[in-house]
Amino acid sequence: MLVHVFLERYAPGSDLHVTNAAMKALMQYEWPGNVRELENCVERAVALGNGQLIDLGDLPAAIAAATSIPIPVRDPAKALRWATNSVAKPLLGPPQAPLSTTDLEDIERATIQRVLSR
What we know:
The protein is mainly α and 118 residues long. Helix content is 51%, strand content 3%. It has helices at 2-10, 20-28, 34-48, 61-64, 76-84, 104-117; strands at residues 17-18, 53-54. Strands 1-2 form a two-stranded parallel sheet.
């Protein structure tokens, strides 16, 4: 129900739908960031999607991984360009030690520290 509320907020009057696979992933995800994380996820999918359909490929990898359905890649060349563009490069670096917890605060702290050190 909240997904549809956020769809109406970020794509008012559009005929935007969520595929069954994407909805399954959204429902199976634990949502450690609660409603705010869901809202951000829907806003991101609306902004980056094709404006007609939200699918697994439009969701963040952690959420899409909540289901066993493979994640489709709509345009591999575009994904590769995005991953290797100059804006993303400064944030990429040597692999960091994996976090011992998936707590959102720990992830945010580690990300901020990594960005500040760069």
